[in-house]
């Protein structure tokens, strides 16, 4: 198994290096520092979302509601701050909504025992609909004056590197520490490897599911803050995009098996870099957006096929609704 | 009931099937005559299922040959076997639950355009000709176990089979349904169909079979007309091992002292769970090994999974579980583990170990599952130390430090699962089939571990379907039958015959 996983990571790394070298040689504007920073900046938010998704997927789940937790809690914070409430209250309200939402996801999966695919599909729709129908009067909520002090998380640079890249790096370090140093991280791998054995061993499986979905919701909300700060507003229509598939693409492409229990932060970083490079190259080549989608779809399909071959799901521990 | 010894419909000659190193059946000769009902008896693991699966094309012979009407054949799939006229009705039925009875009957024989009315009428006529009271337009999911079985039989007859194999057909039936089933078997026989009937229920076999074959430890013991057999002879044939060839030569009490009962660790009163555990009561004492024997379906695993919190007893009238004088009711295994109960599963691959992890990490997970409340960090150093400690303590042989559990031998996997539980420092350790799929050398070592735990004052329960294992390990023996502990023996008074008598209904 170990050798297999290494090989998937290696295949993707080799593809990345080849692609990078090819683009550097062929495209004049590609291999300069400024373009590479732009490349990274463009995928930083996707990468943060991928890190949140990685925690879930390693625990043998999936969170399709991440885009909703990216948009709605952030928009709530922006709107409250704009309406004159204290910034602390606004931020706490956004984070609380996000945490509550993640806990509800986890509760439905752990206690009501509905497969995560369906829970998060429905809950994402619910949260997005709730926001669009009742909370916000406009489609885009602008970054309000009282929150200017926070806008540095999405704008500006530190030591010549855009701040959003720094945030991506910080989240990567935090998620890595969670997965490899904390007891909760060991439990996450155990649950993904064999949920029944995890339960029988005495792992608090249900609590852990809630912890995982709360953390993915909070990570998504953090990504939302970074995004809103960088563009100056939060569009609540973003939920209607196909972005969540990009997040799954990053995770699967990097080699985190959808069958759970395998992979690490490294895999997300590789997946993110590969997608970033690909999209950047296509943009420089002036490939149209629909054609980019076509290529992404093809890559996602290839990655999932490779995943199915390299990380076969264990039929004996598989459950209905697993992806 | 005597039959002329005509040409057998199906026969096996010197049949051998090996899984890995061990033989599931070893040099068996078997004849099935036309129009006879032939019962196959034997303990769990005697080779009954394997023998019939060979005929049904599910399992393939390693050596020997299979003859149909005297001509050698080797069916490689159930479909091949069906073409030869052999069908097997499995314990889990192979019907499509969302389709109607009629659709199931004609499954695989549909034409491009099916008239539903047409197949309904045909099915109705066909079922009536068999005297089966089943409505062909009902979906199979709506039917009970007995009616599903009828549909399976009807489908087999529809395919013009000459041999039908039943694996434990009566296990899920009520008494009235059983009577009906026996009538069906007679009906089949009258049509000239041969029936093979695997069962644990001796009385049923004596009642409906023309001939009985007993298997034991993968070998053929006897085949005889039912009229010349009685209960006594059959039980003797089922258990009469030549123990001199096995290292289970002794029973506890012959060579070593029987351990006295310590304090009462666990007391279970009137436990009930979902029709599988039926009003059972027993106790487990510290400082000795309590063996639990029973045949498949006796509810042993379920009983002890309730004790360990892996299953829930009935909400109402579920009975009582008292641990150390305190009534307990667990919803999940975690609190049971905190109270010192360890359940070591019979199926280590499905719910025992974490296959992508190394042995030390598996053991570390066990430790963390007990101590996570006070231990937020999981240091790698602790993992290595635990791995090293338990590798030495239980003699776990791993090829190298970072080899995955799945790549170890069965015995070493089992030791890892045991270590994963023992690291939680339990007081009551329940071993469910601790030596299933384990090589001979490791069996002795695992028995040694079990004895050491009892000597150290722990309460140890060993659930096993293998009588010699029960006899070799237990200071006290409980016998389960149909969801209930029905007998209790001390090591001194128990023998194979008494236990088997208690276990068979």
Automatic annotation (TrEMBL), chain A:
This is ABC transporter permease. Keywords: Cell inner membrane, Cell membrane, Membrane, Transmembrane, Transmembrane helix, Transport. It comes from Zhengella mangrovi. The keyword Amino-acid biosynthesis does not apply. InterPro entries: ABC_transp_permease. It is found in: Cell membrane. One of its GO terms (molecular function) is transmembrane transporter activity. GO terms for cellular component: plasma membrane. Coiled coil: none annotated. It comes from the Bacteria.
UniProtKB/TrEMBL annotation, chain B:
This is ABC transporter ATP-binding protein. Transmembrane segments: none annotated. It holds the Pfam family ABC_tran. Coiled coil: none annotated. One of its GO terms (molecular function) is ATP hydrolysis activity. Residues 10-242, 258-504 form the ABC transporter domain. Keywords: ATP-binding, Nucleotide-binding, Repeat, Sugar transport, Transport. Belongs to the ABC transporter superfamily.
């Amino acid at each position: 198994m170990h050798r297999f996983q290494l090989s998937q990571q290696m295949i993707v790394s080799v593809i990345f290096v080849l692609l990078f070298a090819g683009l550097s040689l062929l495209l004049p504007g590609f291999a300069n520092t400024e373009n590479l920073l732009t490349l990274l900046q463009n995928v930083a938010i996707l990468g943060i979302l991928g890190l949140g998704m990685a925690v879930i997927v390693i625990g043998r789940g999936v969170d399709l509601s991440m885009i909703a937790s990216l948009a709605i809690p952030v928009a709530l914070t922006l709107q409250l701050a704009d309406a004159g409430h204290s910034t602390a209250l606004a931020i706490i309200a956004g984070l609380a909504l996000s945490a509550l939402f993640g806990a509800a996801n986890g509760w439905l999966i752990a206690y009501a025992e509905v497969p995560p695919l369906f829970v998060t599909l429905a809950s994402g729709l619910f949260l997005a609909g709730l926001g669009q129908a009742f909370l916000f009067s406009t489609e885009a909520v602008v970054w309000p004056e009282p929150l200017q002090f926070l806008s540095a998380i999405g704008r500006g640079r530190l030591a010549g590197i855009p701040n959003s890249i720094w945030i991506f790096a910080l989240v990567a370090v935090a998620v890595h520490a969670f997965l490899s140093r904390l007891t909760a991280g060991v439990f996450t791998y155990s649950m993904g490897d064999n949920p029944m054995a995890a339960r029988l061993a005495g792992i608090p499986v249900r609590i852990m599911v809630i912890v995982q979905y709360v953390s993915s919701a909070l990570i998504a909300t953090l990504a939302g803050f970074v995004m809103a700060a960088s563009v100056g507003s939060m569009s609540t229509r973003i939920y209607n995009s196909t972005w969540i598939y990009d997040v799954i693409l990053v995770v699967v492409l990097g080699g985190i098996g959808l069958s759970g229990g395998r992979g690490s932060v490294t895999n997300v970083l590789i997946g993110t870099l590969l997608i970033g490079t690909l999209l950047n190259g296509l943009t420089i080549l002036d490939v149209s957006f629909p054609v980019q989608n076509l290529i992404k779809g093809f890559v996602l399909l290839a990655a999932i096929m490779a995943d199915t071959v390299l990380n076969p799901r264990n039929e004996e521990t598989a459950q209905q609704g697993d992806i | 009931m005597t039959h002329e010894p005509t040409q057998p419909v199906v026969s096996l000659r010197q049949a051998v099937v090996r899984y890995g190193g061990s033989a599931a059946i070893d040099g068996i000769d078997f004849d099935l005559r036309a129009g006879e009902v032939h019962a196959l008896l034997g303990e769990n693991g005697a080779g009954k299922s394997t023998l019939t699966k060979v005929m049904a094309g599910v399992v393939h012979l390693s050596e020997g040959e299979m003859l149909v009407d005297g001509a050698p054949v080797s069916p490689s799939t159930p479909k091949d076997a069906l073409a030869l006229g052999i069908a097997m009705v499995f314990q889990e039925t192979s019907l499509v639950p969302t389709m109607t009875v009629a659709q199931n009957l004609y499954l695989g024989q549909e034409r491009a355009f099916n008239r539903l009315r047409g197949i309904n009428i045909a099915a109705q006529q066909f079922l009536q000709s068999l005297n089966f009271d089943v409505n062909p337009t009902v979906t199979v999911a709506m039917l009970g176990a007995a009616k599903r079985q009828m549909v399976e039989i009807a489908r087999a007859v529809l395919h013009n089979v000459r041999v039908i194999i039943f694996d434990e057909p009566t296990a899920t039936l009520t008494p009235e349904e059983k009577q009906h089933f026996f009538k069906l078997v007679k009906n089949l026989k009258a049509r000239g169909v041969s029936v093979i009937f695997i069962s644990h229920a001796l009385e049923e076999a004596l009642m409906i079979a023309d001939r009985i074959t007993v298997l034991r430890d993968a070998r053929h013991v006897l085949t005889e007309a039912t009229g010349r057999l009685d209960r006594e002879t059959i039980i003797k044939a089922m258990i009469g091992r030549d123990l001199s060839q096995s290292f289970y030569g002794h029973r506890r009490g012959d060579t070593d002292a029987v351990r006295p009962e310590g304090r009462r660790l666990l007391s279970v009163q009137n436990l009930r769970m979902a029709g599988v555990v039926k009003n059972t009561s027993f106790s487990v004492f510290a400082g000795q090994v309590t063996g639990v024997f029973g045949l498949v379906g006796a509810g042993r695993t379920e009983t002890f999974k309730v004790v360990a919190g892996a299953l829930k007893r009935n909400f109402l009238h579920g009975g009582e579980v008292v641990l150390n004088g305190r009534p307990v009711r667990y919803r999940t295994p975690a609190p049971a583990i905190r109270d010192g109960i360890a359940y070591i599963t019979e199926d280590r691959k499905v719910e025992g170990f974490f296959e992508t992890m190394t042995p030390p990490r598996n053991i570390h997970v066990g430790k963390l599952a007990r101590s996570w409340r006070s231990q937020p960090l999981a240091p790698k150093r602790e993992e290595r130390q635990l791995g090293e400690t338990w590798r030495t303590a239980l003699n776990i042989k791993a090829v190298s430090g970072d080899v995955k559990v799945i790549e170890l031998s069965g015995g070493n996997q089992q030791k890892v699962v045991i270590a994963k539980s023992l690291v939680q420092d339990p007081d009551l350790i329940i071993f469910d089939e601790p030596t299933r799929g384990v090589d001979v050398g490791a069996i002795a070592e695992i028995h040694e571990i079990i004895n050491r735990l009892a000597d150290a004052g722990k309460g140890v329960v060993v659930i096993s379907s293998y009588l010699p294992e029960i006899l070799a390990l237990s200071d006290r023996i409980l016998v389960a039958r149909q969801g209930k502990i029905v007998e209790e023996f001390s090591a001194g008074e128990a023998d194979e015959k008494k236990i088997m008598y208690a276990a068979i209904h």
